[in-house]
From TrEMBL:
Coiled-coil annotated spans: none
Domain Glucosamine/galactosamine-6-phosphate isomerase: 11-222
Documented EC number(s): 3.1.1.31
NCBIfam families: pgl (TIGR01198)
Keyword Iron: no
Described function: Hydrolysis of 6-phosphogluconolactone to 6-phosphogluconate.
A GO term, aspect molecular function: 6-phosphogluconolactonase activity
Protein name stated in the entry: 6-phosphogluconolactonase
SUPFAM superfamilies for this protein: NagB/RpiA/CoA transferase-like (SSF100950)
Pfam families attached to this UniProt entry: Glucosamine_iso (PF01182)
Catalysed reactions, semicolon-separated: 6-phospho-D-glucono-1,5-lactone + H2O = 6-phospho-D-gluconate + H(+)
Family: Belongs to the glucosamine/galactosamine-6-phosphate isomerase family. 6-phosphogluconolactonase subfamily.
Organism lineage string: Bacteria, Bacillati, Actinomycetota, Actinomycetes, Mycobacteriales
């Protein structure tokens, strides 16, 4: 099992700055080594703030490929989509420099979430086996330990083969979503979890102690090289 650690920051802005600095270091290391890097982004307040902090980072973005860890299966122009929030704070500013792979939107081409997941798999073939898929996966987390659209006690958290699934009956609206699964997330070199507030404290503690991911999905998100939780004081308050 890779190294797992946590860092506590005074507030969400310094947390986002530190997480963005870590993302930058990991991406630049891979760009120096291989000429390219792959990043998976996340929605939520801490995730979007971290993406915003990346707008000032010194990164050769034309060498970076970006995915979104999950997406709400709603129309492309729906303000509920995660990618629109990331466009506003980061991608619009970067223009066409990174390669960005978006999830299918609900619409004329896709009106069924499972068909949309199949279409995404077909359009983005990913190698079987252990080869890493992402250099960095950034994850926000809900109070019940959900990451991406992987919620406790759902088919998505039990998925142990497919890298991408459609989600129905999601406990948090909207009910239909698309998500990478734990087998995909665990093929990241570095996993970075960002969480603030005492509502997240139990999930943080369960994640770091290595609880059953069926109960606390974040506990199943482990990077090949490192797993780091960036927290504020309240989110860290149940750690030993
Ligand atoms: O699709 C979603 O419903 C959100 O993106 C959600 O998964 C979010 O990332 C977490 O709930 C953490 O959000 P906060 O950092 O705002 O608490």
């Amino acid at each position: 099992m890779s190294d797992i650690r946590h860092l506590v920051h005074p507030d969400i802005d310094s947390l986002a700055a530190a997480a963005a600095q870590a993302v930058t270091g990991h991406l630049n290391e891979r760009i120096a080594a291989t000429g390219q890097a792959v990043l998976s982004l996340t929605g939520g307040s801490a995730g979007v703030k971290t993406a915003a902090a990346l707008a000032d980072a010194d990164i050769e973005w034309e060498r970076v490929t970006i995915y979104f860890g999950d997406e709400r299966f709603v129309p492309a122009d729906d303000p509920e989509r995660n990618d629109g929030q990331i466009d506003d704070v980061l991608l619009d500013e970067l223009g066409g420099r990174p390669t960005v792979h978006r999830w299918p939107a609900r619409g004329a081409e896709h009106d069924d979430v499972d068909a949309a997941a199949s279409a995404f798999r077909a359009a983005h073939p990913m190698p079987a086996g252990d080869e890493t898929l992402f250099d960095v996966t950034l994850l926000g987390m809900g109070p019940e330990g959900h990451i991406d659209s992987i919620f406790p006690h759902t088919p998505a958290v039990a998925e142990n083969e497919r890298l991408v699934v459609g989600v129905r009956d999601c406990p948090k609206p909207p009910p239909e979503r698309l998500t990478f699964t734990l087998p995909a997330i665990c093929r990241s070199r570095h996993v970075i979890v960002v969480a603030t507030g005492d509502g997240k404290a139990e999930a943080v503690a369960r994640g770091i102690e290595g609880a059953d991911p069926v109960d606390w999905p974040v506990a199943g998100a482990r990077g090949v090289v490192s797993t780091t939780y960036h927290l504020d004081g309240p989110a860290a308050s149940m750690l030993p």
